[in-house]
Amino acid sequence: MQTAIELERKWFDFPMFAGISRAQLGWLMEVARPLSAARHDWVFRRGENSSCLFILLSGHVKLSIPVERGLEKVVEFLAPGDVFGESSLLPGHAVILDAQALEECELLAFEAQDVQAAIARVPSFAQQLITGLSRRFEAIFKDIESVSVRSAAQRVAEYLLRQPRVGNLAKLPFHKRAIASKLGLQPETFSRSLQHLTAEGLISVRGAKVVIHDPVGLQAILV
Amino acid sequence: MQTAIELERKWFDFPMFAGISRAQLGWLMEVARPLSAARHDWVFRRGENSSCLFILLSGHVKLSIPVERGLEKVVEFLAPGDVFGESSLLPGHAVILDAQALEECELLAFEAQDVQAAIARVPSFAQQLITGLSRRFEAIFKDIESVSVRSAAQRVAEYLLRQPRVGNLAKLPFHKRAIASKLGLQPETFSRSLQHLTAEGLISVRGAKVVIHDPVGLQAILV
DNA sequence: CGAAGGCTTGAGACCGCTCAAGACCCGTGG
DNA sequence: CCACGGGTCTTGAGCGGTCTCAAGCCTTCG
What we know:
Two copies of one chain form a homodimer.
Chain A: H1 4-13, H2 22-31, E1 33-37, E2 42-44, E3 52-58, E4 61-66, E5 72-78, E6 83-84, E7 98-101, E8 105-111, H3 112-121, H4 123-149, H5 152-162, E9 165-166, E10 169-171, H6 176-182, H7 187-199, E11 203-206, E12 209-212, H8 215-220
Antiparallel strand pairs in A: 1-8, 2-7, 3-6, 3-8, 4-5, 4-7, 9-10, 10-12, 11-12
Helix pairs in contact in A: 3-4, 5-7, 6-7
Chain A binds a DNA duplex (30 and 30 nucleotides) through helix 7.
């Protein structure tokens, strides 16, 4: 258990709460419900009427659309600072996504009614929500563009280039199956695309480790 | 030219501004820039650094991603009440979409800096922005689901069922080419899908007019 | 009446999917 | 340390839905 002081310091660290007064923060802390999720835990699932908006403080969460036979279409990988569960704010609050923790996560949950109050009392909180949602929009539009104008191998190349690298080594942060789904591909096609890029001498793959031999060449195949 | 009183009454009519005080409305009216767009006018285009957030008051706007050779991938058809141009609120404001009026439109434009002030001064405005963005999120997720789990004919059937009908007659509200793009199809495939549904006796098509003979049957092919 | 744009139709090719094995990886327990 | 086992990933073969390219048609409008 953490003391109130420790909690407060912790919150202050998140850019989410930058430029917030001590009083406002105190009030937010009262209505927010901090929670943690273990790897594979569901934050919410399609069909539930979760009435909470969430802020992800640490860890990664996968948003996906369930498909028949336990399959899924991954829509987003969320990172710390992201806001999600926004459908809880809508009148006919029907959740159509699954949200699953991909690792140990810390979250804040706000009841929809409290969100309304929070918006009125803490303008910078409202500001953060709006820019948070806007950021996600941009990301989704880029994904849509990718899926609708690029081939499988191009999408994979693009994804690889976006991953952080140490030296020329990138690491696939999630299961290949999940990444494939996010890119709108079957696992087999994802695998074959990696294989194709390898054959071109652009990368080499060993498990989740990908060595980027030729970033310029990778960029080039995006046309 | 309209008088201030007329303008004010007009604004009050929009659900967007429901429950707003007279003073707050007055202030919003000062910072908002009303504008109208003719059919085919661009509200903004990819690459511009439009610094405005928009609210669509009347008419329809098409959001799309430009593709080579003047082609496009339609992302959303916006209706009155929708909020868009949210990317202008982000730090590195790079617009990646095209926004085009599909008919005579009335809009409100808010400079990004004014939005920030508006959020602080008019909480219900912030509220409206957030729920407006959330609504668009839901719609986009449904589209993603559709594209990733349904066949061409199923997507077309789904789209037809969503259109308003008078009796059993629905009207395609936009060019078939644009609707096809929104559904993630080539125009040819859209045409053939309509043809396929016609052959099944579910609909008949004459130009933009579609007679829905068997809504239940249409629903049924979605499996 | 002619022209332009949008839509439809046809033929063919291809990319990614499906189904089915087999290989690999890695944690677990003997 | 090694063998085991479950899950993940890869590889192969073949199919098929959708795209591409190219005419032709139809409607609209000058």
